[in-house]
Sequence to fold (65 residues):
Amino acid sequence: MRTNVVLNDELVEAAFKYAKPVKTKRELIEVALKEFVDVRKRKNIRELRGKIKFRDNYDHKALRK
Fold:
């Protein structure tokens, strides 16, 4: 999807310092969006803590084999 945005130059320069293999603004924005989505997914999973009920005979270690 093509779109035009105005970016904060100082923030972009700071982001480039933390994203060494990234060379273009397009790559930088893609990396930032992927990380944003990953963080939000993890946050949503953490919100489930204590809300999931497991069966009494559930053996998570047996599933690892």
Residues 25-46 form the longest helix (22 residues).
